[in-house]
Design goal:
By secondary structure, this protein is mainly α. It has seven helices and no strands.
Length: 150
């Protein structure tokens, strides 16, 4: 079952369970998927890879919104955003641990042949594509910087 169909069936389940927060998050995902399908150049199709990019973007937006709400002393809105983010993250691949991220990046650095911090651009280009959805861009960047500085 592709991701779009899974979201569709989960919306029905959330409606039956009367889970409003989950339903809101799932409807938001479906809306973004439909927009992705109808975007210029999409040919009315949404690949799982494109869907993953959408989910990563949505999760990142929710975390950022929650952070801003917490800074503005609005914990109830931050809680809603974090709950929706948790629902979105259920559909993303399991995030890499720090050790797994280090191992993956070490392989990529060896593959690219990077030796100094000046080669960070080469490593980041490959790493962001290879680790899409499994690690945050900031975490990748920080770890690459740390590994190349050694």
């Amino acid at each position: 079952m592709d991701l779009y169909s899974k979201i569709d069936s989960d919306i029905k389940a959330a409606m039956l369970a009367k889970d409003k927060v989950r339903l809101t998050a799932l409807r938001g995902i479906k809306k973004e998927f439909i927009e992705g399908k109808t975007a210029p150049g999409a040919n009315g199709e949404l690949t799982d890879e494109a869907a993953m990019k959408i989910l990563v973007k949505m999760a990142k937006q929710r975390r950022e919104s929650a952070r801003i709400y917490q800074e503005q002393n609005r914990p109830e809105l931050a809680e809603t955003e974090l709950t929706e983010c948790a629902v979105i993250e259920e559909y993303l691949p399991k995030a890499l641990s720090d050790e797994e991220l280090t191992a993956e990046l070490t392989k990529i650095i060896a593959q690219v042949g990077a030796a100094s911090p000046a080669d960070m651009g080469k490593v980041m280009g490959v790493a962001t594509k290879a680790l899409a959805g499994r690690a945050d861009g900031r975490a990748i960047s920080a770890k690459v910087r740390e590994l190349l500085a050694k």
